[in-house]
Amino acid sequence: MAVLNVYLCSKFPPFPKPFNLHQNSTSISLPSYRAPQATPIPIQSPLPSLFESISKASVVALVSASIVFASDPALAFKGGGPYGSEVTRGQDLTGKDFSGKTLIKQDFKTSILRQANFKGAKLLGASFFDADLTGADLSDADLRGADFSLANVTKVNLSNANLEGALTTGNTSFKGSNISGADFTDVPLRDDQREYLCKVADGVNPVTGNETRETLLCK
């Protein structure tokens, strides 16, 4: 039996030694992997450029306005008209001579125009809103579409003036005014003012050929 064991041991190779992971192990280094990093894209906010554009535009507008105002003083004051180079709104223009001038749509709002001379002036659409015209001369003036709302038109010379379509709302007063030959066609008058004017109305307008009393709808 001992002989058989020796025989078998000589025929088979010895069992391999168990592999020890901690002894004689060769370390294998693998290349480390790094995920690619995205390159940041710079994002510029549009706000700075927008503010810069607005600032430049504002500077240009201010410079332009300064140049315009310096060249035309009437535009530097709110209420200047498209005709006439003088400032006429909210001013004391007592005794001022505007005779024969073209002052279409000129703004005389709240101005003092006592004894001012507008004889023969072209004042289509001009505004005399809340103005004081006491004793002013508006004879032969073209006052079509002018605004006399709240104005003081007492003792005014309106002889041969054309007031067609003028506005006279509020407490506009024509007391003591000369209206001989004036044309009041389509002028909205208060009943008391119409009654008063009809008592003194006479003459024919030399431009329109209309009788003053007829334009006032006098009975």
From TrEMBL:
Classification via Pfam families: Pentapeptide
Mention any one GO cellular component term assigned to this protein in its UniProt record.
chloroplast thylakoid
Q: Which Gene3D superfamilies match?
A: E3 ubiquitin-protein ligase SopA
User: What PANTHER family is this protein classified in?
Assistant: THYLAKOID LUMENAL 15 KDA PROTEIN 1, CHLOROPLASTIC
Q: What is this protein called?
A: Thylakoid lumenal 15 kDa protein 1, chloroplastic
